[in-house]
Amino acid sequence: MAKGAFLRVERLTKTYRSGWGLNDVSFELPGGTIAALGGPNGSGKSTLLRCLAGLASYRGSAWIDGRKVDASPASRETIGYLPQSVAMPDHATIGEVLDLFADLRGVDRSTIPLPGGFVNDDDVRIGTLSGGQRHRVALAVALLGRPHLLLLDEPVANLDEEGRIAFWSLLRRLRDRDGVTSIVSSPSPSDLRGVADRALFLDDGRLVLEEDLTGPAPLVSEDDPDDLMEARP
Known about the structure:
By secondary structure, the chain is α/β, with parallel strands linked by helices. Helices cover 23% and strands 27% of the residues. The chain has a domain at 5-85 and 148-212: P-loop containing nucleotide triphosphate hydrolases (Rossmann fold), CATH 3.40.50. It has 5 helices and 10 strands; from the N terminus they run βββαββαβααβαβββ. The longest helix has 18 residues, at 161-178. The chain is globular. The two termini are 33 Å apart.
């Protein structure tokens, strides 16, 4: 593993009957990095996150802090994963849902590093929540146990502006204070301007662009159809 690399992905390949899910994807991320994962629908963003979370089979390899990713509990205990949609029983309360997932992960629920008021009170039932409020609970589940790697599939899609601001602030705090590495997928990576340190862009299962977002913004021609990422301010 290269010096400073926390996450190393080597030739990750996933095929479906309909075609490529991922096609020979390789990259490395240092610890304490927020990476924006972009690409059109069907480009492989969700597939990549599921593979790294140990929830889908693939060819190739992935290493997190020197440990190979597999489906074992030990491999997954330092990973927080948020899919696009999370099924939670309507009759359960928020407290019951968080307690259940905390028990499954073998962690104390008090480890969730969320700001006060980010989720509703424990006694509120899931069935009474809006889509955005449900998504906040799902984010809390992903953060159980203070994972070292967060894999977040469109995490702010259902959040209002206040929720988005609170979430991005939290993600930056986890990076700066605890060295947490995050991969955040979005159909529009420009949404993560000012938040992400790196950009990864997938198209048809291939990694077609990597960009360091910590330096000066690149010049982008409005007339060039091959420009895959918008210029940053």
